Amino acid sequence: MYNPPTVPEASTPVPEPRVVPREQIARARVLVVGDVMLDRYWFGDVNRISPEAPVPVVHVQKQEDRLGGAANVARNAAALGAQAGLLCVVGHDEPGERIVQLLGDSGVTPYLERDPALLTTIKLRVLSRQQQLLRVDFENTPAHEVLLSGLARFDALLPQHDVILMSDYAKGGLTHVTRMIANARAAGRPVLVDPKGDDWERYRGATVITPNRAELREVIGQWKSEEDLHARVAKLRADLELDALLLTRSEEGMTLFAAEGILHASAVAREVYDVSGAGDTVIATLAAMLGAGLSLVEAVSLANRAAGIVVGKLGTATVDYDELFH
PANTHER family attached here (predicted)? Predict the structure, then answer.
């Protein structure tokens, strides 16, 4: 029987994290499911304006490819030392092959469904002197047959993993997410969801959902106070049968809403260089630590520390074991 959560009066601080042995994290088996993309960066100098239009001319001098979306989440889990698998759909194209290559380099086990009609998603960013000038996206949606095949493969992979992580970027890879969550919970596996859009009914029954402020506001509306926020989240958790919700609040840190109460972790004070990909690091750290046998509260404390480290790096970056615990 599901018991609707009560609304505590105020949040309490999350305790300081303890050091987790490397061997303990190495036993954690995390399966990431979701939308993958290739983050492609072009770096160059701008010394003139184009004679064709009032736009800068970038002389590209360096190119770099990084794993994006769910692939970056899996890479983050692997960087911490967990066993990370990735179930996703990619195209039969150059960026698809590049993703396969980068996954191999990062220690992630790929479970790839290939769709010949799919353009593997690329986010191309053009930068000059660490400033982004332009982003160009290439994408379409995977075929129905490939997604059904992915669902069958998901069921086969479930017994081999301790924690399931759904990374939704609204590119179509999680069309069957509701069935996946139900199957995972029936198998006794915790399910973490990084949500997208305003239809959270599809995430019903998830263990933990990890929205940022803008994503949560899209679903529950603008809250007027902390008490109002607490009441709205309690109702949402009861309606969707969510065990917990972790709200990431940028410079305000993060707040965990769970059956045990409401806990808050203040942001780790350091220079913020780039917040892109910080949400990936947070949910990957949560999954790795839950897979290692830590409590949700302990996992949140470490996820908050990891977020403070990763925002000091450029682009979709990772945090490794030594950075997190030393």
Answer: BIFUNCTIONAL PROTEIN HLDE (PTHR46969)
Beta bridge partners of 87: 33, 111
280 is catalytic: yes
Please report, for the chain, the start and end positions of each structural domain, with discontinuous segments joined by +. Answer: 20-37+68-118+141-325
Measure the CA–CA gap between 65 and 102, rounded to whole angstroms: 8
Name the catalytic one among 168, 194, 280, 320: 280
**Per-residue model confidence as pLDDT tens digits over 265-291:** 988 756 666 666 788 999 999 999 999
pTM (2 d.p.): 0.90
User: Rounded distance, CA 235 to CA 253, Å?
Assistant: 22
Query: Are 282 and 75 within 8 A, CB to CB?
Result: no
- DSSP letter string over 196-217? -SS-GGGGTT-SEE--BHHHHH
CATH topology of domain 20-37+68-118+141-325: UDP-N-acetylmuramoyl-L-alanine:D-glutamate ligase (3.40.1190)
